[in-house]
Design brief:
By secondary structure, the chain is of the alpha/beta class. It has 14 helices and 14 strands. Helix 3 (83-93) links the parallel strand 3 and strand 4.
Length: 431
């Protein structure tokens, strides 16, 4: 069992030393999330990448000696390692050697709750493991090699076929099955999304760096009880909640998985079913941790991932969270940097949430109408639709009619053209 980790971060340009140290600190937090104690961190400069070790031969020997002297049972690289480099280090260090991507995969596996998230994690893990089977084949769910084995005929070992080849065939088949299951999940999501679109409900996605307070913000806005802990990747599954804005317009808000710097590309690909909520939203709510000393680089990280997903042109509201943890000078500095395109809040205390809600309402002002309606009592279906998709400001009865002052989504206005009060039609207005 891995209990004590020795962390190594390599950089190849002396100007990148500060960034490399920052990333190594982040790696330490990631490893700690797995319950592994950090016994040492080494940030090293490398002039030339070594194909066999990544570092130079002498530096590799020095680091291995240091890790053994400190009784480490695992070496964790912040850099991406090739399968052959991992094998070389493990053979010479005689201990487990992993990289940043495997750490993140293990955290994702620990956090995944729904079937969709578990499938996405398994797909990323299988894709990561496939070229490393010689090193870590035991991680796979190997099935027996005979004709009666659980893998069926396709799992049987042919004449002269090596076990590693059987494992690779099994892995590729499993990857294909997972992709097929995820396609089913995406189709179900598309059906649900089409229903929302047909109803004309605006959608927003909360995006941001992991642990910025996205789930806490969703809870504060909706009164929901989404898991919100001070941990990296506390939630992986997208959670959607419906809220009502002051003008009566409904809004669906989705909390998405958080980002990290150097997020492995295969994870972005594997989690597209989750992250596509950001792509298809009407606008984004970009949450930043105002108390982080690296807020500007974390902002750029999220912007870059959003661009990679194809949502770079989406309108965004920048939300600077955790202002209860910073002083006035820092508040002014952040305000100057992000100009007027930001809202300062504390999801924990509720400070600034009213300003955020009004900013959201302003963005959606052209999506609703305020109407004076006269609806026959026999058309209770239209009244029910107003209660469900709009907001009834006032309601009265006259003979067999219901007199209603309501705010409705732009997409539903045509349903009420025949029921507008003739004498009050001139009072129709955009809210």
């Amino acid at each position: 069992m891995v209990e004590r980790a020795y962390l190594i971060g390599a950089y190849f340009n002396r100007e990148d030393e500060a960034v490399a140290n920052s990333l190594l600190d982040e790696l330490a937090e990631l490893v700690t999330t797995l319950g592994i104690r950090i016994i040492a961190k080494r940030c090293i400069f490398i002039r030339t990448r070594n194909k066999r070790y990544l570092t130079g031969t002498g530096k590799a020997a020095e680091l291995i000696e240091d890790a053994n002297a400190l009784s480490a049972d695992c070496i964790v690289f912040d850099n991406e390692m090739t399968p052959s480099q991992q094998r070389t280090w493990e053979n010479e260090a005689e201990m487990t050697v992993i990289d940043r991507e495997e750490v993140i995969l293990d955290i994702f596996k620990m956090r995944a709750q729904t079937k969709e998230a578990r499938l996405q994690v398994e797909l990323a893990r299988m894709q990561y493991s496939l070229p490393r089977l010689a090193r870590m084949w035991s991680h796979l769910d190997r099935q027996g090699g005979g004709g009666g084995g659980g893998g069926g005929k396709g799992a049987a070992r042919g004449e002269g076929e090596q076990q590693i080849e059987v494992d690779r065939r099994l892995a590729r088949k499993r990857i294909d099955r997972i992709k097929a299951e995820l396609d089913d999940v995406r189709r179900n999501r598309q059906t649900q999304r089409k229903q929302r679109t047909d109803e004309g409900i605006c959608q927003a996605s909360i995006v941001g760096y992991t642990n910025a307070g996205k789930s806490s913000l969703l809870n504060a806005l909706s009164g929901a009880s989404v898991l919100a802990e001070d941990k990296l990747f506390a939630t992986l599954d997208p959670t959607t909640r419906r809220i009502e804005l002051p003008d009566g317009q409904p809004l669906l808000i989705t909390d998405t998985v958080g980002f990290v710097r150097n997020l492995p590309h295969r994870l972005v690909e594997s989690f597209k079913a989750t992250l596509e909520e950001a792509v298809l939203a009407d606008f984004l709510i970009h949450v930043l941790d105002a108390s982080s000393p690296e807020i500007f680089s974390l902002y750029e990280t999220t912007v870059n991932v959003v661009k990679e997903l194809g949502a770079g042109e989406k309108t965004s509201i920048i939300v600077l969270n955790k202002i209860d943890l910073i002083d006035v000078d820092r508040l002014h500095e952040l305000g100057s940097h992000f100009d007027g395109n930001s809202v300062f809040i504390s999801a924990h205390s509720g400070e600034g949430l009213d300003k955020l809600i009004h900013r959201i309402s302003d963005m959606m002002v052209d999506r609703v109408y305020r109407l004076q309606l006269r609806i026959p009592q026999a058309r209770q279906d239209l009244v029910a639709l107003l209660y469900r998709e709009g907001k009834i400001v006032s309601e009265d009865y006259e003979n067999n009619d219901i007199l209603i002052n309501a705010v409705i989504p732009h997409s539903l206005r045509h349903r009420y053209d025949d029921f507008m009060e003739p004498k009050k039609a001139d009072k129709e207005s955009k809210v």
